[in-house]
Each structure stands twice: as structure tokens, then as C-alpha cells.
Amino acid sequence: MNHDLEGRLREALDERAQVFEASPQAWPRVQARARRARLRRWTALTLLPALATACVVALVVVMPGGGGPDISASTTKADDPIAELSAENPPVGEILSISRPDFVGVGSTVRIWFSGSTRDHERLCTELRDTPTGGRTAFCQPMDPWKEKQFAWYAGGTDTAMPAPQERLAYGAARPEVAAVTATTDDGQSFPGTLHREGGRPWPIWTVLFPGDAPVTAIVFTDEAGQVLQRLPRTIPWDCDGDRTPVGTGIRLPGGVSAHLHAENCLVFWHRGKQAGTDFGGVAARGEPLSVRMAKQKKPAVIWGGPGQSATGGLWYGYTGKETHKVELRLNDGRQTSAQTVADPWGQGVRFFGGKIPKGGDPNLDGAVYLGYDAAGGELWREVVPGREHPSRPPTPR
Amino acid sequence: MSLTELFAAHYQPMVRLAGLLGADDPEDIAQEAFARLHARRGRLREHGAAVSYVRSTVCNLTRNRLRHLKLVRQRPLDHSGVVFGGEHAVITAEKHGELLAALNRLPRRQREALVLRYWLDLSEQEIADTMGVSAGSVKTHASRGLAALGRSLKEEL
């Protein structure tokens, strides 16, 4: 009977709930999350996509405290929000300024500074000046307390810029015990970096410059005796960044985006002279066609779409399986758009698509749906997009 | 009630709510929900509003986690192929394993409606606020969910 079923369900849920325990460390963790969220809100989250990729993908990020990369950022040349970011994150110690005319496409000057105190949560801030457009990008990353066996922290760099520039930069913070930093390759090459201890900064800043086509696989930190304190492996396949020239001319997609393939399977999107997304797949995906990579991830499509993900908030683009001839996006406000797919010319076994999103639409909001259709118009797959937060009914403040 | 008091009183239930809704890491969900409350504490002074906010956030975050990012399946979901992992392992050992397994197989909104009603004992309007749907939808989801559970258990409703 229904009544009996309801009773059983209550009992079952009560029993099941007992399985889920609460950690005694939960409250400090909540506080740490709240601090990071505060940092994110300081400036608009309009991180340059290429930069985001550079920060997130380039190395195995070993963050103090175990968090993922957590970046507050601003990218624009209007109204100078960079100044605002600097004002809200005043330098502790001197600003480190690195000027390299050969950071083609990603900025000729990099400025790095610490802000905050240990008590008020330290952060490492960066400003990149982009040469092609005159725009600048700045962002701050929170630093949680160092772990016991952690001696260095990777903060970012120009090391996923594609095509490969003449020279790449990686940088971060180090503990005082670190005496040397070196970028190394599997075939024995090494590129010594610099530890910047001067200027009253709370921690040394490490920087490493290495040739754009060098197959660097790790950044190694050693003490005064030459003993390795920490090794940060690089997770992008070096044959991606070692390849200066894309294969063929690329695919031009609606909305001004073009897709280019480097090496065997390193995908880069461009929009108006800037990187607008990369898919390198990681070391494990070396040599695998995009179709294989997609199948392993059980994804019917890989999509950059909407604010914060695509080159501009009004675009969507990506790739899907070779059976999918049309991709449709249904926004949560009822509007929709679709794009025909085109076969890739590189034998990767995928099809590309792209287009504009209806004005003001955000495919990342709860309720948006992507659908894929075959050549005959039959639905092959659909996926509801995970929302950032439920947009329709936030709890009403009382 | 201060945030710390609110946390002390409601953190464990929120972990359990996330778990019952199927989150693979219920603590992560609950911590994120309270961190977001932390950011809004100035605007959610009233205790009931704060609890309602956290509950709603737990549901949303769990929903997002379950969908987990872009594009998981090539074909419409075939529940027979779903691997329940650790959660399933726990379920089979429980007295109500069959019922809980059937609950897990329900569409997301039906599962939410049933958990909120039968575990938290929320009113239809409270469930509607938490899920971001109308009270009428709550009724429908709960009724269909219950019917589906009954069918799964081969009960006569």
C-alpha cells in the first residue's frame, strides 16, 4: 500500500542518512572556501581564456592547502580595473617586473607581487601586458598555508601559448629552503631559473625561462646541497608546445573562431588574434586522435560556450563525434540555436561546429541543453548543462 | 543565530541531504553551500532564510555534480548500465537496499521531491522553494516518484 511504502521510505532514508558522516575539520574548510570566494569577487571573472588554460593546464598545480587553482582576474583596457585590482591587492614587498620582448602574443611584461598577510590570507598577483591589442590581464590567486613537504607552488606563466613563442616563462612562489630552480627535459637538458629573494617579499618568487620548443617535462627545486626538494611535473605534452606550425590552414567557424591542430592532437581555437581555448589532453593523451580522447571521457561533444568559457560571451564552439551532423543549443529561457558540423581535415574522427548564442543567453545556466543529431535529423545524444547556480528561484532574502 | 551556530546545527543534516540526493562527495557539497552562505550572510540575517538558502544550494550543487559537466553520455541514459560504485555497495548491505536502489534510479527531480518530503518532512511550498519549481510540480514529482518506487518493488498502489 502507498501508506506502507511511505513509511518504508522514511525508514530507509533515515537509515541511509546515517552513513554520511561530517568531518570535524569541516568548519575551517568552509572558512577557507569563503576566503577564496571573496577573492574571486574582487574583480569580474573575465579571465582571458588562453590565460586560464595556461594557468590550469600547464603543470600539475600543487597548491598549498590542496585547493585547485582559484583565480580572481580582470582583462580589459577600459576603465583600468587593473588599477582597481592593484588597489585592492596592495603589494607586500616589491613588485617583480619581467620584460621580455619575445613573449609574442601573450605579453611583453609580466608583473608579479604578493598581497595580503599570512593572517589575512596571502595571494600572488600577476599582471600581463598584451602586446597585440594593448590590453592587459591581471589576476590574484590565494595561497593557503604550505603543506609540510611542499617547497614550491606553480602560479602560472606563458607556457601554453600556441604556436610556441621563442621563449616561455613559468613562475610561482617558493619556500626559503629552495636554493635553485630548473626546468628539465627527459633527454637531459636543463634550463636554470632564478629565485628572487630581494625586495622584502614574504616568499621568494621563482621564475624559469626556457625555449618555446624545448620538451620541458618538469620544474625541479633543490636545496643548497643539490638535493631535490620538489618536482612539479608538466602535464601538457611537450610535443604540443614544441610544434610551432599548425597543421594546414585550420577550420573557420561561424562567429570568427578558427580551430587549428598542432602536432598530432593539440587543438587550439583562435578568435581575433587571441587564443580562445585549447585542448591538449594531457600527457596520457599523447598521440591519441581527438575522437579517442572524447570516447575515453564518454563525452559526445566538447564545447566552449558562453560567458567565461568562450572567446566572447556570445559564442559557442567545439567538436563532436563524426556521426553528429548538427548540434543544437536550447537555452533555459526557451531560445535556441543550432550549428551544422563540418568534418575535420586532419583525420581526427571528429566534426567541428560553432556559432553565436542568442543575445544575452548563457548556456552555462541550469536548464540549458545541448543536443546532437545525425545526418537524417535523428537525435543521437542530449546533455543537460550543469548550472552554476539555479537561476530561477534563488532564496529570497528576508 | 550566528553563522557558527547555524553551521553547528545544520552542517551534518546538509551533508546527509547531499548524500541522499546522490552526491559522490556530500561533504564537499555541504561545505561549498556554507561557504556561499558565508558570502551572503549580510543579506540572509533571518535564520529560516539562511537554512532555506543552504538547503537550496545543496540541491543545486548536487544536481550539478550529478550531471557532471558537459556531456556525459552518447545515448539516452540506460539505467541498466549505471554503475553505482561505493554508494551501491553500501546500499546492498542495508535493510532497505532494494528500495534505496530504486530511489537512486528515479529521475532527479522525483528523487529530490521524495527526499525532501520523506526525510526532511518539508511542506510542499518549502520543497518547491528548494527545488526552484512550483508547488504543483512538487506534487507531480512526488506522486510519480512514489508510483515508480512502488512499481519497482512490485507493490500494489
TrEMBL record, chain A:
Membrane-spanning residues: 42-63
Superkingdom as given in the UniProt entry: Bacteria
Keywords for the protein's UniProt record, in alphabetical order: Membrane, Transmembrane, Transmembrane helix
This protein's name: Uncharacterized protein
Species of provenance: Streptosporangium subroseum
TrEMBL record, chain B:
NCBIfam families per the UniProt record, alphabetical: sigma70-ECF (TIGR02937)
Location of the RNA polymerase sigma-70 region domain: 6-68
Alphabetized UniProt keyword annotations: DNA-binding, Sigma factor, Transcription, Transcription regulation
Xref: CDD domains: Sigma70_r4
Name of the molecule in the record: RNA polymerase sigma-70 factor, sigma-E family
Source organism (scientific name): Streptosporangium subroseum
Similarity annotation: Belongs to the sigma-70 factor family. ECF subfamily.
GO molecular function: DNA binding; sigma factor activity
InterPro entries linked: RNA_pol_sigma-70-like (IPR039425), RNA_pol_sigma-70_dom (IPR014284), RNA_pol_sigma70_r2 (IPR007627), RNA_pol_sigma70_r4_t2 (IPR013249), RNA_pol_sigma_r2 (IPR013325), RNA_pol_sigma_r3/r4-like (IPR013324), WH-like_DNA-bd_sf (IPR036388)
One GO term of the biological process aspect: DNA-templated transcription initiation
Domain RNA polymerase sigma factor 70 region 4 type: 97-149
